[in-house]
Amino acid sequence: MHFLALPVLSLLLGAASPGLASPHPQNPLLFDRQQAPIKYEVKKPPLDTDWTYKLGTNPWPEHPRPLLKRPDWQTLNGIWTFRKSDSSSAAAPPPAGLLDRETMIPSCVESGLSGLQELDAEFMWFARRFTVPEGWRAGGKRVLINFEAVDYESRVFVNGKELARHVGGYFRYSVDVTDSLAANGTDNLLTVWVRDPTDRQGSFAPIGKQTTRPSHIFYRACSGIWQTVWLESVPASGRITQLDVAAGSDGKVTIKAHSSVNGTAAEVEVKVMDASGAQVGSGKGTANTEFHFTVNSPKLWWPETPTLYNLTVKMGDDSVDSYTAFRTVSRGQVNGVQRPLLNGEFVFQFGTLDQGYWPDGLHTPPNYEAMVSDLKLLKSIGMNMVRKHIKIEPDLFYRACDELGLMVIQDMPSMCADGRQPNDADQAEFGRQLELLIEEHKSYPSIVTWIIYNEGWAQRRDGPPWPENELVQRVRALDPTRLIDAVSGWNDHGFGDFSDNHHYASAQCGAPFYSQPAGPHDSSRIGFQGEFGGLGMNTTIEHLWNVSDAIRDIPQTYEIHSTGDSYNHRATQLLNELADQITRYECSGAVYTQTSDVEGEVNGLVTYDRRVTRIDKDQWRKDIQKMYEEAAKRGGRAVGGNCGHVYYPRLNPGKADQPWRLRRSGAGQTKVFKMTEVFILQRKWVGLLWDRRGTNELQNNVNWR
């Protein structure tokens, strides 16, 4: 699929003419060019973080697309100007010049980081001036403005000319602005009109948990330009718009380079490099056509050893840097039970429900460090997975999961969860945006599962036919390399790869018992605990989202404890109960609710401001390790996060039943094991020497799994 065809994107390169200067809304005698905007400063949110007041005016300076990097790019993040508007502005020409108030981009206008905290803005304008670097248009090169995400509808103008329209709050789009730039490339005016239909009459947009009326599990909305905006110089003769890359555990690389030129037969060259920069493979093919090649004996991507390989891809005058990892996600029987497989082995998946909300930025994390700190916490206690819940993150989130070794279960943001059912047009739009989710993210190695519906939210109930049947087929056609959880929680009609149960607080994972509205476990599919836990513990006001409605909702948290000891004792009970279900039943993975508090929910591993950690890390690490051990007894590959792994060597055929001993060099320490046993190795034993007892045969650098 052509990259620019993914969003609803119309390039209107003629017709429109620059708008005249518009009167200032408070004083019709003043025009925007004559009115200095109100200066930006962080507006104190109901709760801040350690990063809130340290961001400066150059937020998110990182290149935002790690899978498609060129050298000539420039961020447009920073200070923009803003004006709240009304519905009449939708058909009007853009305001001339800058606007009334400064704001920080990227941000949600409802957030403190925006400097605005506009809580009910449906229509709005954003504007800033920019300069195109010298040489970027030499030789006929083109200049793009890339938007990573704008919530929800947007129109883009450069120097008064409308160039693009887009619908969808989580997806990127690119606009070729070359022909509308000032002759010398300086003093260009970029203006963006935005509409956010959240909770507006008749709206059924896929916006997840956003609402203008927050309560309990639904949170403050995010409107506006909430992800990075950036300039890019690209070749005139055609450019790579997207790379689809899948690298399997057998070393086979499947790649498709989408070109901006339809029907081109341009040659595509790919080189694969390891971490040292050494080339380990290469392939050639044709643009817009899938082709294959093989890398011999690659190091595989595992949660404990998340090996990545760099790519360079050339097509004509264009060259981009990217990366991939060698791993295969599948489903199969292990000892008679349906299991999720990674590289052919059952890996028990355990992690948190991760909402991705921040008290100062809402959908937009304060910075990269803050975003990754959540993921590092999960790894530090041995988790190997994260469920990205009802939200799609910036691409750098998925790159971080690739690097850290966190498997990602990715939700499709839901439509309205107020009990209404979507009409045919709403359902079609949901399907279109589901396809965008898959297309834009299917090359990130860490993503292992797509979730289509959560707990029946806006899932049509007028079947059969059931909507998830057709959607599963569409997702499978777009991406046959991952598993699909058609419905997480309930309203399950037997489609997809998982039999998924939600039950708070205790789990019912792959078990012969269940509680409504969840249904009975289906042994023909993978038994999975899509949500459980949710233990709460209230905190002091300096760590709470200080909004009266949120504080009112705190008692709705599933189970609240008054002390850390009580909280952690109960958590151990729940985790051990889950371990018992792994032993007894068909439980293949579980999602604990949740990473952090969110507004009126106080059931995070950490508080909403990330300043207080509730969990006893050592105890959680032991309890999580026990799950992996129980899974190993059922045929699983018993690995965890970055500590407390269960290991066993991969031996040559015919040697697995022979006793071996582990020798710690220079320390005179030896342990003897039979290789058919599963054992826990302390750190001091990892990566050392094995020899076969009674012989001098020495095995160094054993391949650990």
From TrEMBL:
InterPro entries: Beta-gal/glucu_dom_sf (IPR036156), Beta-mannosidase-like_N2 (IPR054593), Galactose-bd-like_sf (IPR008979), GH (IPR017853), GH2_Domain-Containing (IPR051913), Glyco_hydro_2_cat (IPR006103), Ig-like_fold (IPR013783), Ig-like_GH2 (IPR006102)
One of the record's GO molecular function terms: hydrolase activity, hydrolyzing O-glycosyl compounds
Pfam families named among the record's database cross-references: Glyco_hydro_2 (PF00703), Glyco_hydro_2_C (PF02836), Glyco_hydro_2_N2 (PF22666)
Domain Beta-mannosidase-like galactose-binding: 108-200
SUPFAM superfamilies referenced in this protein's UniProt entry, alphabetically: (Trans)glycosidases, beta-Galactosidase/glucuronidase domain, Galactose-binding domain-like
Keywords: Glycosidase, Hydrolase, Signal
Glycoside hydrolase family 2 catalytic domain span: 369-499
Source taxon at top rank: Eukaryota
GO biological processes: carbohydrate metabolic process
Family stated for the protein in its record: Belongs to the glycosyl hydrolase 2 family.
PANTHER family: BETA-GALACTOSIDASE, BETA-MANNOSIDASE
Designated name of the protein: Hydrolase
Organism: Pyricularia oryzae (Rice blast fungus)
